[in-house]
Design brief:
The chain is of the alpha/beta class. The chain has one domain: Rossmann fold. An 8-stranded mixed beta sheet has the order 1-2-4-3-5-6-9-12, sandwiched between helices. A two-stranded antiparallel ribbon has the order 7-8. α1 packs across α11 and α2 crosses α3. The chain is globular and about 55 Å long. The protein starts with a strand and ends with a helix.
Length: 348
């Protein structure tokens, strides 16, 4: 059965979705990342349909063909979008799968609505703790930078990510946070064909998609410094970082990493740090360990606040490394499908 592209009306959004299968197995809902759409799940949608599940991949608010209402977003709003979508589809419970920003939304949905999400799969994503290897999380919050950047570079940005274009075309700090992408022209990845490249270019050509992407990062991820405090019941307290704070860190002459008070691992969900998701959880992480791409490692990485957030929130956690970079569902579709199907069947 092929994929069906259609719309569903929720209480406040016209949501575009791709659906597959009609099996009796627990429905599977896929949430995409930035700067993509539900199209990124085309390989997984087919795999779950072939295995007897019904698969659903909506475009998130502000992306693809879903409504772009222009409202400032929050994680709670985006999680409610998922619940409203499930209600509109008549789905009582589901397995929820999220990549990148889709994983941020999936986490918030599951941690607040565990009665609706029976299994959770997170693919190269995070829960509430940001990693210092992601400077773009800071850059997005500095007023004006992202707006100016995407106005000039929205097409080139997609071509750097998906077509092998030279990242030097995007510039460097402070105007661009993407200097970590190797400079120089690279071959187009084998997992991006002409149809995929055209889709991502066209989808991100809409200025309203840039606006929503900026809102996701600027307002959906309110960074806080986590401070140890034995006097508190939780053993910690938080300092909210304002846009001025973030701009000061980002604009440090030697780079924010050299700022003496830069919080390496800010948390954008302190209201969730006491919560736990009780159901089975799968974490698939990029396999770039020890200088080589690896697949199939079963240990759960720990050792810093970013890695430790997974064992913090999920008492029933299993992890696998995937031999790809970040866009794992497309880069390593066969292995990701194998892991997801094993997880949904209870074999993993």
């Amino acid at each position: 059965m092929g994929l069906v592209s259609q719309y569903v009306q929720t209480v406040d959004l016209r949501v575009h979705e791709r659906v597959s299968g009609s099996g009796s197995g627990n429905p599977v809902v896929f949430l995409h990342g930035f700067p993509q759409t539900g199209y990124q799940w085309r390989h997984q949608l087919q795999a779950v349909a072939d295995a007897g599940y019904a698969g659903f991949a909506p475009d998130n608010r502000g992306f693809g063909l879903t409504d772009k209402p222009g409202a400032r977003v929050s994680r709670a709003m985006l999680a409610q979008d998922v619940i409203n979508y499930l209600d509109a589809k008549g789905i009582g419970q589901c397995t929820l799968v999220g990549h990148d920003w889709g994983g941020i939304i999936a986490f918030k949905t599951a941690i607040d609505h565990p009665d609706r999400i029976t299994r959770l799969a997170l693919i190269d994503t995070l829960c509430t703790t940001w990693s210092p290897v992601g400077p773009h999380g800071w850059w997005f919050k500095v007023p004006g930078l992202a707006e100016s950047f995407f106005e000039r570079h929205h097409r080139t940005f997609i071509d750097v990510l998906f077509a092998g274009a030279d990242s030097a075309l995007l510039g460097d700090r402070p105007q661009s946070p993407w200097g970590g992408i190797p400079a120089g022209v690279r071959p187009r990845p084998t997992w991006i064909d002409d149809d995929a490249l055209t889709h991502y270019r066209e989808s991100f050509a809409d200025p309203q998609s840039w606006w929503h992407a900026i809102s996701y990062y600027r307002y959906g991820l309110p960074f806080h410094e986590v401070i140890t405090d034995a006097a508190r019941a939780t053993g910690e307290r938080y300092r909210s970082l304002s846009e001025d704070d973030v701009a000061e860190y980002w604009g440090h002459p030697a780079g924010m990493e050299q700022h003496p008070s830069w919080p390496q691992f800010p948390d954008y969900g302190p209201e969730d740090r006491h919560k736990r998701y009780p159901h089975p959880t799968l974490w698939l992480y990029g396999g770039y360990l020890g200088g080589s791409l690896v697949e199939g490692r079963t240990e759960t990485p720990t050792g810093n606040p970013f890695l430790d957030q997974f064992t913090r929130y999920f008492p029933d956690l299993r992890a696998r490394s995937v031999g790809g970079g970040h866009f794992l569902g497309e880069e390593c579709s066969a292995y990701v499908n194998e892991c997801l199907l094993g997880f949904m069947s209870g074999a993993l």
